[in-house]
Design brief:
Blueprint: H1 16-22, H2 36-44, E1 49-59, E2 62-71, H3 82-94, E3 100-105, E4 107-119, H4 125-139, E5 151-152, H5 153-161, E6 166-178, H6 182-190, E7 213-214, E8 220-222, E9 225-227, E10 230-233, E11 242-246
Parallel strand pairs: 2-3, 4-10, 4-11
Antiparallel strand pairs: 1-2, 4-6, 5-7, 8-9
């Protein structure tokens, strides 16, 4: 049997780390939601919700309590799904009856990173590279990044430099791209070639100076319209968004 509609809102068991993080939240807003943060804490305890944030905004002529959510492992949550509708109903039921509640899905941003790395004498690049990649996906993957969390280039460099065998790191590209511009953006950054346009053993050509910090926006109002919080992270399913090149001594 084929389902003609895209599935959404489904998720596997919650990771142990998420259960541990949500445990104290489950008792912070018993039976009623008072503070702005209560709404995010309440939403985060719902099965299938991986991340949640809340913001009190002013849009459409009145105050608005906006709750931004992301599914477990960033699984899409359609407004028509049971999860979305049940959560919105619960927020309205337990929240301030005089306050407008808006539930929205996160604005997804793909973190795109390219770095040139030199390994120490006696280390094999083919063995060190997978360790660097795994460390970056852990420190800057979905599980580790929060809604509206900025990205510091120093933190990315520190993650790579901490791997045994790494002599030095030269960060060549660090940008975020929206889902709709990901394919074209990667082609532009890599010269249209999978794995980048960098010759092995030669550092990549730099463009403009890299920013020390990439801003990732929380829930906000732009042009009178309330916009969801952004979420930026490295995506393991898109290999060309994380390019590591060896630099020979």
């Amino acid at each position: 049997m084929t389902n003609p509609l895209r599935t959404s809102g489904g998720a596997g068991p919650e990771p142990r780390e998420l259960i541990r993080a949500n445990a104290p939240r489950s008792v912070t807003a018993l039976e009623r939601l008072v503070s702005v943060s209560d709404y995010a804490d309440f939403a985060a305890t719902f099965a299938g919700i991986g991340k949640a944030s809340s913001a009190l905004l002013y849009a459409g002529g009145s105050a608005l309590l906006q709750v931004t959510i992301a599914g477990l492992d960033d699984v899409p949550i359609e407004p028509s799904s049971d999860l979305f509708r049940n959560l919105r109903s619960a927020l309205t039921r337990f929240g301030d009856q005089q306050l407008r509640i808006q539930l929205v899905e996160r604005e997804a941003l793909a973190l795109v990173l390219s770095a040139s790395v030199q390994v120490q004498t006696g280390y094999d690049w083919t063995l060190v590279e997978p360790v660097i990649r795994a460390a970056l996906l852990e420190s800057h993957g979905f599980a580790s990044m929060a809604l509206g969390q900025d990205l510091a280039s120093s933190a990315v460099i520190a993650t790579m430099a901490a791997i045994p065998g790494v002599a030095y790191v030269d960060l060549d590209v660090l940008v975020t791209l929206g889902r709709e511009e990901l394919t074209a953006g990667l082609a532009r950054l890599t010269g249209g070639q999978p794995g980048g346009n960098v010759t092995p053993g030669v550092p990549a050509n730099r463009g403009p100076a890299l920013p020390r910090r990439i801003t990732v926006l929380p829930g906000r109002v732009d042009g009178g319209v309330a916009l969801p919080a952004q979420l930026a992270y490295l995506q393991a399913a898109v290999p060309d968004s994380l390019i590591l090149n060896e630099v020979q001594p």
